[in-house]
Design brief:
- It contains 3 helices and no strands.
- Helices cover about 50% and strands about 0% of the residues.
- The chain has helices at about 15-30, 30-45, 60.
């Protein structure tokens, strides 16, 4: 799988950072739906991924076991 962006959050301007935070919040709120759709893929691909990469742990977010911080 090819990555589209290889930079860091700090590479974005302030307006872009705010938009990313907003979209992250929506993604987290809808974690149960995303997990249901992506379950097999996520479970197969998340080996050794840190919890800070919360998007790999949608099941834990949906079960309220993981509460990502959006800074």
């Amino acid at each position: 799988m090819q990555r589209c962006y290889s930079g860091t959050f700090n590479d974005f301007n302030e307006a872009e950072k705010e938009e990313i935070k907003k979209l992250d919040g929506i993604f987290i709120k809808r974690a149960p739906l995303f997990y249901k759709a992506l379950k097999g893929f996520l479970e197969a691909e998340r080996n050794n991924k840190p919890k800070s990469y919360w998007w790999w742990y949608l099941d834990e977010i949906a079960d309220n076991k993981l509460k990502p911080q959006i800074n």
